[in-house]
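Researcher: If only I could read C-alpha cells as easily as an amino acid sequence. Walk me, if you will, through where the backbone shape changes along the chain. I have put the entry right below:
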Amino acid sequence: LRNKLAGIARVMKQNYNIKNPFTDEERPVVNLYLSIIGALESKPSEKMPFPPWLLRTFVHRFPSATVEHKIMIAAATMAFGFLLRSCEYVSVPQHTAELEHQGPLLWRDVLFRTGLDKGEDGQTPPRTLSGAEVLHTEKCQAVRLKISSSKNSDVFVTRSLGRHEEELLCPVSALIDLYRSFHKSHGRAPDPDTPVLSVDGSKLGLLTREALNEELRKHLKASGIEVDAGILLSHSLRRGGTCAYLAAGVPRDQVQYFGRWHSEGGFETYTSFWSHVISGFQAKAFTQVCDFEIR
C-alpha cells in the first residue's frame, strides 16, 4: 500500500494541479493516477515465502549456458540472499517504484570482496578485487551491494554477503559467473553505469519483474505445485530468504538490520505471520544460509 501511495504522491506532486483544467500533456498522467487508484481498490494478495528447496530446483532448471539463464539465476539468488525488493534489482512499472532514486542494480553498486570481515590471510581486513582478479582468480569470497536503506528513503547503505556452501544457491557465485559471462561475450568488463541484470548492458535488455514472475510461474507449474499465481512471485524470494535466516538461528535483530526494516513492529508483523513456514524450514533441515556482515 505504501508503495502505491508513494507512486501517487510523486505523480501528483510533479504533474498534477487540481486547480487547473487538464491539458493534453497532463491527461496521460491523470489516467495513470486513476489506474493507480484502481490498483489500490483491488484486493491485495499475501505473498508466500519462497522455500529454499524450491529455489534450488528453480535454479537447477537453467543450464546457465546463456546470459539470459545466468541473469535469471543471479536475480533469484540475490533476491533470496540479500533480501531485495523487486524495485532494487529488476525493472518495475514506473508508478510502482517507491521513489525516483530507486532503480535496477548497476555494476557500480556491486563490489567483489576477498571476505566479509577478514582478507586472504585471515588477519587483514578484506579488500575489493579488481576486474582482472574476478576474471582470473578464485579470491572472491563475498559481495557487497549498495542498496536503498529502506522502502521510502533516499539514503543508500551497503550489505555484504559471503559465499553459500551450496554453489547452486550462492548469489556470490552467480554474480561472478554473470560478470565473467559478460566479459566473454563482449570482450570487456561491463560498464559501471549499466544494469547488472541486462543481456546487453542496456536498460532495454534489463530483466523485468514480470519476466521473472513468469519464469517462477512456469517453474511452479512444471513442479506440479498448484497455488494462486499471485501469491508466489518475486517478492516471495525476499520473504523466503527472511524465513530461511530465522530458521537457521540468525538473531532476529540482525535479520531486521540486514533486510533494512527500520520498524521493529513492521518486521514483527512481516515475520510472525509466517512462523509456521519458519518451523517448516527447521523441520526439513533446510537451515543452511549465507553468512552476512553484521553491525
Notes: The chain is about 45% helix and 5% strand. The chain has a mean pLDDT of 80. The first strand starts at residue 110 and ends at 113. The first helix runs from residue 2 to 15.
